[in-house]
Amino acid sequence: MNAKDIALIRRHFKPGHDLLRVFDILHVYIMKESSEIYHYEAQPFALLEKDQQELFMGNFKKLLSGRMDEKLFELRFQEQGGTEDHAQTLLLDALQANSLADWKDHMLRLVSKMLQDNFQFEQDTVITFIRGEYFKPTKKRSEESEESEKDEVFAFKYILCTINKTEQPPKSLVFDYVSREFRYNVALDPIIKLASPEGGFLFPCITDNSADVNHILYASGKANEPDMRFIDQVLNGELRATAKQDKAVFEEIIREVAGDELEASTLAHVYEEIHRLIEDNEEEEPPKLDVWDVERILTASGVEDVTKEKVEWAFQQVVDDEKYELKATSVLPKFEAKSIKIETKVATISISPQDLKYVRQVNYQGRRCILIEVDEDTVIEGFTMRTETL
Hints:
The chain is α+β, with helices and mostly antiparallel strands.
């Protein structure tokens, strides 16, 4: 499932949108002191007040926010082994459920998996499920064509889950208009934190304009911190490396091939080569880097004595698999952040990856210094720095 499809689904999470329908909703309240269901409530989504629908739509959008392999992870289901409580089996049966009651029962069985082994949440928690149908246009609308973009669509049923903690409302002082007095207000009803879901999932995934029931999209509450217990025991999924892990693997492979020291300009060329590979990619899925790609990138970037055998050996040393593939988007610095950090004891410098070629570490009068080439005068707090000749 690619970022484009996820963004499209997020955009369509609006009450009454004709390309994304929500049929039913189920809330399950879990008390933190126990590993039991305290209360649940299932009903058609259309029966909720519009303000409530808007709140939940915002919750669903928030769940699907973030980068792939950082907060969103496509999982492949583990082999079922004939077990009836396997997540894939439960979700497939739930997709085909004809009644609200049947669907609810399947979802409650999934909640029971979350609470197995006496697992306890840190706070009172609300688990919300929805089911509905999504319609995805199969082709772009032509400006000359009179056909609507909705004339050719494919449809698939989906189930989405969000997990949200609760918190006690803040104490406050209010003014009572009737009695004309100030009084201390104590609210006992907990607030469900819909703006910051702790995790959840979307099933099934979308692959090549079709529903992929062998994969599930897992969403983590925090970047690069997937809940492995939830992935393994609840969703019965298999997680490939996160973006953070892929980046660490790539950096270690470079060290094995090129050594611990690398010129900034060389590193800049490495990033430029990877960025060019991503830009030239015509597939919906982001490109992956294998041994051959890494060898070509390092050679083109000016790293000396690079051979395929040396790169294969580096892959073997780092990940114990010379056929391992790295997602190019994971190893590249975040270009939307526009900068990477150069950290020293004296200062932290932020610079865009493509400008690394203007940075050098030099030896001046026996001291290591960072030299940055600039085209214009440097201004600090409104003062133009005087240029010194070394």
